[in-house]
Structure formats: C-alpha cells, structure tokens
Amino acid sequence: MHHISDYRDRQDFGPQIADRVWNAWWKGAGLQLADVAHHLTEMVDERPLPTALVAHDENGYAGSVFLIDSDLEERPQLTPWIAALWVEEEKRSLGVAKALVREATSAAARLGHDEVFVCCHRDLEPFYATQDWRILERGVGPHDLSVLVWRS
To answer: 142 preceded by cis ω (within 30°)?
Structure first.
C-alpha cells in the first residue's frame, strides 16, 4: 500500500526526489543537483506554493510530484501546475502516478484553485485523459509540448 505525504512531513525523501528530478529533467538543462536540492528547500517554507508530495510504502520512496506556480515560460498566466511527476520504475503501473496527480489536484483545490495545468509530450496525453484532464493546446514551445487543464 502506498501513502502520499506532504514533503514538509517527509523531508527524509529529499535526496531521492532531488536525484530523480535532476537526472530526468534538470541535468540535461545544464543545472546542478544542488539546484534541485535548493528548490526543495523552497517547498518547506511558509508559502503554499511551491510544494511537493511524496509517495512511499514500507520499502521507502515510490514517487513524487511538485505543485508549482508556473512550469512553462510560454504560458506565465496559467497557474498552478503539477510538475516533475516521477514514479520509480518498479512501482509503475501500480496506480502511484494517478494517486500523486489526484492528491496534487486536491491540494490545489484546497488552496482555492479550480484549475490546474500540466505540460507534457503528446505520448503522455492519454495518461492524463483518463483522469479528466483536457487538452488546451499542442505544439507549445521548442519542445513541442501539450498543455492540459484539470478543472474541479
């Protein structure tokens, strides 16, 4: 069974989260692992955003997701965004990603947001579509991203 916790309560998973996020997205952008670690420190201050959620079970870290103000510089008017959704390879296809996304949208709703956004490559659209996300636009930015919205 997986549990979803606010990162503020499970900062012990910080090294795993930083490693996965850095290797998956930030390393190729020329950023350092320390940059991700610093970003995580911003997720434990008094501001509601940014924040992170972490999935874990009896064996430890299973995955994580961020809820942030903005994730796409081409669309600064849209907020908030889920970002950096990661699930450990051996935990995939077990519902962990869906649980993280569901909890992130619930957290956004508790903060008063009736819309949440995500950007992804086109091949990930079906994953979000099964959770009532709708495509706003495709082909955004240099990475040809799709922008999707979830409405409460």
So the answer is: no
Domain count, the chain: 1
Torsion over CA: 136, 36, 127, 132 (sign): negative
Query: What is the chain's alpha carbon radius of gyration, rounded to the nearest angstrom?
Result: 15
The residue to which tokens 């649980």 are assigned: 99
CATH number at residue 65: 3.40.630.30
Asked whether the predicted pLDDT for residue 1 surpasses 90, the reply is: no
Instruction: Compare 25 and 149 and report the one with higher pLDDT.
Output: 149
Distance between CA atoms of residues 5 and 75, nearest Å: 29
The residue-averaged pLDDT of 71-86 equals 95
Q: For residue 71, give the nearest of 99, 47, 46, 39 by alpha carbon.
A: 39
Alpha-carbon distances, residue 99 vs 26, 29, 45, 94 (angstroms):
24, 28, 24, 10
Quick one: pLDDT band at residue 67, thresholds 50, 70, 90? very high
> Domain range spanning residue 9?
3-151
Residue 28 sits at the vertex; the CA angle it makes with 129 and 52, to the nearest 5 degrees, is: 50
pTM of this structure = 0.94
